[in-house]
Amino acid sequence: MCRPTPCCIGQLACCCGSAACSCCCGCCPKIKQSTSTRFMYVLFFLLVTIVCVVMMSPTVEQKMRDHIPLYNDLCEKLNAGENCSTLVGYSAVYKVCFGMACFFFFFFIFTLRVNSATGCRAAIHNGYVHCLQYRCVYVCVNLFINLCVCVCSDACFSPSDRFWFLKFIALLACCVGGFFLPGQDIFLEVWRYVGAGGGFIFLLIQLMLLVEFAHRWNTNWSSGVNDNRLWYGALAMVTLVLFSIAVGAVVFMALFYTHSQACLLNKVFLGVNGSLCLIVTLLAISPFIQRLQPKSGLLQPGVISVYVMYLTFSAFSSKPKEMLEVNGVNTTVCVFPFNSGSESDKRIVSIVGTVIMFGCVLYSCLTSTTRRSSAALRVCRNSMPETERARFCFCLGDDTDDYDEEKTGGGQNVLYDERGGTIYSYAYFHFVFFLGSLYVMMTVTNWFHYDNHKIDKLLDGSWSVFWIKMASCWVCLILYIWTLVAPMVCPKRFEA
User: Fold this and answer.
1) Is the keyword Repressor in the record (predicted)?
2) Strand 31-32 and strand 413-416: pairing?
3) Which of 74, 162, 218, 479 has the largest CB neighbor count within 10 A?
């Protein structure tokens, strides 16, 4: 049983100065070095994103005014404007996300063409220093940190010195620096279009990963059918559940998001998207496609259909509300019951929408950097084997089993899985997080309609958000259709 011993507490206090993989107690499960590195960058990303959400929350802003003594005087001393207006709202989110984007873009440039995990740049990316020109400076900083905050110095000094704390300080400096940029009005206008472009690219990557995920799921589970017929039953059951969800979503939206006398746009797009899902399903199991791709089945179109229906529902929820005069009274029509006007209902929808957004962003950032997904996006040249062992948690499978195990002093068992080279592209990893920073910035500020926008109104009406999500539906379907017909259009690229 793991107890919070002084040594564990010391390691936790020194987490910023030691490698992430060794700041946990020995009772924690084994962790790979590459996983621990990505976890720390995800933690940085998540912390900044939470700050952005807080900045857009009127509830937090009101609580600060009510409970912080001399709040206005403090804001004036900080030159933050009346009621700290420059530290909240969409402009503050733009500046903070600008700093986070600069942080990841710097590491993207810094780690370009890094193929070995033993080099200086790879060591800095992974949070430790082998470079003599940096080591002396870092040892002094790490010594100061240990003397100030650590209660167990033996646990803090590991064989290889790390500097996650310095990275966190650099990220913090970048985020704070955005508030001191000259020409704030010009910066906000230009950065808005940069964010929109990066957000669109991130959406495309997200959709491509979804298509790759659907194909990989079907391929992995189909590979187990020959050895165990239960895999066939699992495929059939999951496929049935997926199509049931898709059909249920169509019925649900037909009931709540259409009206006999209004919502013509909803009727048209629901019919179009539902018909397109049916077409791609029939195309996937057609004899013509089966000759080109024998592994094509119903599971892939099931995944695509569910996601398209989710995007359609999200688009309808994001569309400005329509009013209809019923018996002389203006009535809001074609809205979800949770979006009928109650503040508690709106808060629930906003929280759910925010959590879904975070989940999609983190999944895209992490899965897009594996060797298999990078190959699907044509980022890596290394091809992955077509056959693999069937398993339920296929998406969490190891990229490699070639690793050494080392026990860090008092901490977790670390699996050094990059002895023979990097297992993912460091530069591409940071580039995806750079795009993810822009996507979060645009989503939290409601894309182009950012004036007076608050996180509580994340799902309120906006035509820009509506068209972005609706276009995402069609792009997703086009990408999937392309994967079906690509072997015919480019046969040489798909020859074994």
Assistant:
1) no
2) parallel
3) 162
Amino acid at site 434: F
* Closest to 166 measured CA to CA, from 142, 135, 136: 142
Q: Find how far residue 287's CA is from the centre of its chain.
A: 37
Q: Do the Cβ atoms of 227 and 388 come closer than 8 Å?
A: no
Decide if 456 contacts 59 (C-beta within 8 A). Answer: yes
Q: Match 């009621």 to its residue by tokens.
A: 83
Q: What gap in Å lies between CA 40 and CA 405, rounded to an integer?
A: 20
Distance CA 27, CA 48 (A): 30
Dist. CA 64–CA 84, nearest whole Å = 10
Coil, helix or strand at residue 413 = strand
Q: How far apart are CA 55 and CA 59, in angstroms?
A: 10
Nearest Cα to Cα of residue 292 among 108, 440, 490: 490
One-letter identity of residue 382: N
| Location of structure tokens 């529902």 | 313
Other beta carbons within 10 Å of 228: 11
pLDDT in tens, the chain (496 residues): 445 444 444 444 444 444 444 555 455 566 677 778 888 898 899 999 888 888 887 777 777 777 777 677 777 776 766 767 777 778 888 999 999 999 999 999 999 988 877 788 888 888 765 554 455 545 555 555 454 544 444 444 443 445 688 889 999 999 988 888 888 888 888 998 899 899 888 888 888 888 888 888 888 788 777 777 788 888 899 999 999 999 999 999 998 888 878 788 889 999 999 999 999 999 999 988 888 888 788 889 999 999 999 889 888 877 877 777 667 666 667 776 554 544 544 555 556 666 776 777 777 666 665 655 555 555 444 344 445 666 666 655 544 454 555 544 445 566 776 777 778 888 888 998 999 899 888 888 877 666 555 555 555 567 788 888 899 899 999 989 988 888 777 766 555 4
Helix 299-318 × helix 230-256 angle, to 10°: 20
- Give the contacts of 386 (CB within 8 A, at least 6 positions apart): 219
DSSP 434-482: HHHHHHHHHHHTTTT--TT--GGGTTS--HHHHHHHHHHHHHHHHHHHH
Whether the model clears a pTM of 0.70, i.e. scores above it, the answer is yes
Helices (H), 23-149: 33-55, 58-67, 71-77, 90-110, 120-126, 132-149
- In the chain, what are the helix, strand and coil shares in percent, each to the nearest 5? 65, 5, 30
* Other beta carbons within 10 Å of 5: 14
Measure Cα distances from 39 to 35, 43, 67, 126, 303 in Å: 6, 6, 35, 11, 27
DSSP string, 150-163: -S-HHHH--SS-B-
* 8 Å CB contact between 101 and 430: no
CA distance 280 to 291: 16
> What number of CA atoms fall less than 13 Å from residue 342's CA on the CB side?
7
